[in-house]
Amino acid sequence: MIEFTTWDIIRNLLLATRWTVLLSLVSFVGGGTAGLLLLFLRISKRKALRGFARYYIELFQGTPLLMQLFIAFFGLGLFGIDVPAWLAAGLALILWTASFLAEIWRGCVEAVAKGQWEASASLGMGRFQQMRYIILPQALKVAIPPTVGFSVQVVKGTALTSIIGFVELSKAGTVVTNATFQPFTIYGLVALIYFALCWPLSKSSQILERKLNVAHRNH
């Protein structure tokens, strides 16, 4: 049996943490981009586009992320397509993240007073111009805290990708545990690393929400 020192254990977990952080960033940026597109579809004047966005959101919010990962990884394999674990993990998390961010942002857009829509329409602005110059800048202030807060869920969601073989923090914890037979120590360190990743995001969300609420009341 290979002997692992404390430093070996920590080093292996930190190396795997890089992939957790990278997957979280890819999922959040990709999901944010797709979520913005979904937002425009969700508030479109065309019923078909609104319906597509609504059913997409309900599908991905209403099914477990674990099942979505299985489908992304094993589903295409049924057609003879070999999907790497990192690609399946990234795709599933992007689609899942997009559904939640789109709905969060829709609520923020709807929080903008209807008079802003009417005023911008009276200036001859089209739908895209209204969103770009009038609505989104105001909705952004409301959207920042819940968006930052949701990023915590994305980081924690990456742990589920271990089930399809993607080697991130939780998967590395399992591998090192099997090699060292020290589950309490290993998973304790894994929990501490997740806490170190998520706590600053949670705290930032609370601070931003408090500051923006104060600014809103003063305004």
Automatic annotation (TrEMBL):
GO terms for biological process: amino acid transport. GO terms for cellular component: ATP-binding cassette (ABC) transporter complex. InterPro entries: AA_ABC_transptr_permease_3TM, ArtM/GltK/GlnP/TcyL/YhdX-like, MetI-like, MetI-like_sf. Residues 17-205 form the ABC transmembrane type-1 domain. It comes from the Bacteria. SUPFAM superfamilies: MetI-like (SSF161098). Keywords: Cell membrane, Membrane, Transmembrane, Transmembrane helix, Transport. Its main location: membrane. The chain crosses the membrane at residues 20-43, 55-79, 85-105, 142-164, 184-202. CDD domains: TM_PBP2 (cd06261). GO terms for molecular function: transmembrane transporter activity. It is a multi-pass membrane protein. It is found in: Cell inner membrane; Cell membrane. Belongs to the binding-protein-dependent transport system permease family. HisMQ subfamily. This is Amino acid ABC transporter permease. It comes from Phyllobacterium sophorae.
